[in-house]
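FAQ
Q: What does a multi-component entry look like?
A: The components come first, one per line:
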Amino acid sequence: MIPEIGHFALILALCVALVQGTLPIYGAAVGNSRLMALAVPAARCQFFLVLTAFGCLAYAFANKDFSVLYVAATSNSQLPLHYRLAAIWGAHEGSLLLWTFILTIWMFAVTLFSSHLPEAMRSRILGVMGLVSVGFLLFMLSVSNPFERLIPAAAEGRDLNPLLQDPGMVLHPPMLYMGYVGFSVAFAFALAALLGGNLDAAWARWSRPWTTVAWCFLTIGIALGSGWAYYELGWGGWWFWDPVENASFMPWLAGTALVHSLAVTDKRGGFKVWTVLLAIMAFSLSLLGTFLVRSGVLTSVHAFATDPKRGLFILSFLAVVIGGSLLLYAWRAPRVGLGGGFAPVSREGFLLANNVLLVAATGAVLLGTLYPLFLDALDLGKISVGPPYFDSVFVPLITPALFLMGIGPLAQWKKAEIPDLAKRVRWAAGVSVLTALGLPIVLGEWTPLLSLGFLLACWIVATAIVSVREQLAHLIGGGIGARLARLPRAYWGMLLAHCGIAVFVVGVTMVKGFETEQDVRMGVGDVATVGGYTFRFDGVQNVRGPNYTAVRGTFHVSRDGRETALLYPEKRRYTAQNQVMTEAAIDSGVVRDLYVSLGEPLEDGAWSVRLYHKPFVNWIWGGCLIMALGGALAVSDRRYRPAWRREPQVVPANAQLAGR
Amino acid sequence: MTPRQKRFAFVGLGLLVLGVATALVLNAFQSNLVFFFTPTQVANGEVPKGRSFRIGGMVEDGSVKREADGLTVRFVVTDTAKRVPVVYKGILPDLFKEGKGAVAQGQLDADGTFVASEVLAKHDENYMPPEAAEALAKAKAAGAQSSNTLIVQPQ
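Then the predicted structure of the entire assembly, as tokens:
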């Protein structure tokens, strides 16, 4: 009964979405405010309907209702409750429901925080989001219904893929989807602007916080996925340039470009058409990412052939959304106009260059991800594009972008002078070059990439310090503390996010440069040394988990005779699918991780064992977290608060700073 | 600068980045594309010399031998028509098993052994890596053809 209620709620939601996607947009076109007024209640109603459906599926999982096909396929009666609930997004159908649910959450949020928008704008935004929702609901109801019954019911479920039975995996998809779907708000804003034919600074100011929040979620989501791959796949890698990862990275790159382009549109009224195009790109790549990962096309392009209805729907949906919005763009963009002019050497110029580099990098990743699929689909042979391709294309494209990241915030809007800039950054440049040359010598190893990494990281931080000093010098009166407090939060957020990149770069550089890895055969009592740490293998014992049995090894780690850690890596066998999983044991630290995973049992109680010493690896995810915090800080800036909440007297001081 | 010169500067910048990106992509494609071959193609000598490529197929039953160091593993990958001996030093993925599909990346040495630098198993119990499945399917199709010819010939 409950699953049917969920199914019915989805059907109702589709009807509501159809209303929401058509009448308010039509109303905005003809100026009928009664039609426009439908948008808000429709969006809220849709939210509650999809919430009901989501709750019904959760109930089916919690209740182990194996008469629902999706529940039987992705869970098991021995699976603990929290993983049963996470199994909602463990496969295709449920992921689509989660996607739609999150879309309605964003819609609901838009209805709450858009009362200050012009009526026509608001109804167009909600209308576009409603249309996107129509696509997803139609997809679920026609070919991917999560509530489909299995009659007769299965006695036992097939269980969730053991790889996904992990706290990181529980959080990763919702975070990622919050990011993906969050870009739908920017997308809806962009289409609303195209439909309305006006795109002013106020428009950019409204869409900026939405985009930044989505970007923060996406950043966290990608970092969680990367961390999960690191400790769960048992290979100690944090990024593989796997198509699944690229699928989430491309929207991030486009989204990063969009965040910066919006800043120009907001502050200077420039980059208008470019911003709109980026908003369309970011959301299109999000859609592509969702489908790449969840349609099975990556494991085999012929997945489409085995289930042609799904493939056909996905391709036509992508074609309608991307093609439709680009058509609208081609038709209406000339009305929006280019925005203000500026000199090539100016903050706008640097931001534009950064945008172009980010988009070029996105294109290179897209090509490397889709090219093998195209060849395969056309039967031209099977190839794989591995990490070396991405490394050798991505690094040279992103290096100048990181360099510009330091100098951009220092340059004046409209027109800047190179000699003046050079004078202001000379000590930052000096410190960076000295660090780049000196630090590798201190660490006892030199490679060009090490120096490059240190140079860029140090450059970003040093130029940030220069920027803060200059800002303080411009403010008159008050102590340092008071003056620091007067700098707007958006400014601090920007600096923090940039420093997050620097932390990230340090992490990547140190891991690439100094990690040590050893695959060894270890008998009980054997000792191996990796990165200055001594690992002693104390044998294995059998343990039982809720839905698996495991062999657990004990490793005693010491350095210079002092005990550092006891590590317990496991080799698990999940009973439902009889699948073996390696569970690595990691001793995490600020400056290094020690990582042990069990290979295979050999004769006489010996095991093949993989040992890693990973310096600064946590800085990689720490950097992502700092970036996201920076974004959150920027969003909390008072300039984004609705006008009625802003105290009038602070506006001039704030505007003065912002204009610089 | 006149607006005209400015526009040229921007277009120039865009073209420059595009050009550099294209050059990087082409260069990286040239040296980093990894092609896939079936054991039959390996046996027929269709594979590149001195360059890394992938092979896929089934790990032959009873072929997995471990050397004394506990880490070097020898096994045979087959598409049921032809066999390729593989040697790999390191820890094999969890799902590597005799009688199951596997994909390996590496180079062919002088005596025809495939020296793998990587053994991939991004797949679960229920499905084979796509490359491995394709190798088996191709061999099967080829096998079916030749057996047809055999039946036809006597008539």
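Q: Is there any commentary attached?
A: Sometimes. For this entry: Residues 494 and 630 of chain A are 6 Å apart (CA to CA).
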